[in-house]
Design a protein that fits this description.
Blueprint (H helix, E strand, L loop, with lengths): L4 H15 L11 H13 L7 E4 L6 H15 L5 E5 L5 H9 L16 H4 L4 E5 L6 H13 L1 E2 L8 E2 L3 E6 L3 H6 L5 H7 L2 E4 L10 H16 L4 E2 L1 H9 L5 H15 L4 E2 L5 H19 L11 H19 L4 H8 L3 H19 L2
Parallel strand pairs: 1-6, 1-7, 2-3, 3-6, 8-9
Antiparallel strand pairs: 4-5
Helix pairs in contact: 1-2, 2-3, 9-11, 13-14, 14-15
Length: 354
């Protein structure tokens, strides 16, 4: 009998928090993350299934890749998790890093050595920033994916390996295919199971959990009990986090370094404060440029109330009715949001029944 989605989600949450060896690697309970974890558990039972992780930088694609590997590790022969950042290695070195090299293949190749494909045998090869891989090398990677075999640079011997390939990108690969910057046949080979990592701004309910997680980790590192003030917490909850989880982690680290009494306060979050202030100032300036006082004047109170209600409704619509996330978008607390909704409802009732 198949489990209901709700039962399966509850099981994953329990597993993540208590029994699973990946506990502590994934923090959060938002629906999108739970679906990703459910898929990760399913994919892990197929050791050779390829996975493509898509999402903005800093959303944790590397963490999910390692989670899939660790879950696979329990049900199959142990193997290494071998990561490579395709954007960080020069084009002329990337091929030798992946496939290895035979002695004498070029001037400095004095010894034969294995590449990352050989090291990842019976394990996982994680190709981060796959969109940055040169087209010439894409063709060679495609051949490997089709045959599970390769040759070292400068060699003729065929090596056969079995491994899982997990790729990650923060770019639109389909758009890159359309621009002839990425091979369509390689895209379809990599794109067996696709997981889309949500940005942190769409995981408002996970922010407190992540903040507490990074605080506990910094406390353990420093051997002191660190905490955060309500004002600083509110600032973090209302920030949009363009750098996602990585930016949040760095913000907590910065706050822990700069705080004086082991309590993070707004003045200790320099980057967040300056970015948030600049963003608010720009948005206000842009809004004011489109506002002009009519010659006949206006009812300022009614206009401001209408604007406020319009923004509240828009925020609720974007967040699927979730008041916590809508309040965060508006920079107010959930209690204030509820109060303003109730006030508007009461006002409308008075107008309808004078």
């Amino acid at each position: 009998m198949f489990q209901s989605e709700k039962q399966a989600s509850a099981e994953v949450v329990t597993t993540i928090e208590t029994e699973d060896p990946i506990a502590g690697m994934v923090i959060g309970r938002c629906p999108a993350l739970l679906n990703i974890m459910l898929t990760a558990h399913q994919v892990a039972t197929y050791p050779l299934a390829r996975v493509l992780l898509q999402g903005e930088s800093g959303t944790g694609k590397d963490v999910i890749a390692r989670v899939i590997h660790e879950l696979s590790h329990r049900s199959s022969t142990p193997g290494l998790f071998v990561p490579i950042n395709c954007a960080a290695i020069p084009e002329d070195l990337l091929e030798t890093e992946l496939f290895g090299v035979e002695a004498g293949a070029y001037t400095d190749a004095k010894f034969s050595r294995d590449g990352l494909l050989a090291r990842a045998h019976r394990g996982t090869l994680f190709l981060d920033e796959i969109g940055a891989m040169p087209l010439v090398l894409q063709a060679k990677l495609l051949r490997f994916l089709e045959t599970c075999s390769f040759r070292r640079v400068g060699g003729t011997k065929e090596f056969h390996v079995q491994l899982r390939v997990i790729s990650a990108t923060n770019t639109d690969l389909q758009a890159a295919v359309a621009r002839k910057m990425f091979r369509d046949d390689l895209f379809y080979r990599l794109n067996v199971v696709t997981l889309f990592m949500p940005p942190l701004r769409e995981r408002q309910e996970d922010l407190p959990l992540l903040i507490e997680h990074f605080l506990r980790r910094e406390s353990a590192r420093r051997g002191i009990a660190l905490s955060i003030s309500d004002e600083a917490m509110s600032l973090l909850l209302h920030y949009t986090w363009p750098g996602n989880i990585r930016e949040l982690q760095h913000a907590i680290e910065q706050g822990c370094i700069l705080c004086d009494d082991n309590v993070i306060r707004p003045q200790n979050l320099l980057n967040v404060v300056s970015t948030a202030s600049a963003s608010d100032s720009y948005q206000l300036s842009d809004l004011l440029q489109n506002l002009h006082l009519p010659a006949e004047g206006i009812n300022l109170s009614a206009l401001l109330a209408g604007i406020e209600y319009s923004f509240i409704q828009d925020a609720l619509k974007r967040c699927g009715g979730n008041q916590v996330r809508a309040a965060a978008l508006l920079g107010i607390s959930r209690d204030k949001l509820r109060y303003r909704l109730a006030s508007r409802s009461s006002y409308a009732s008075e107008e309808a029944y004078p």
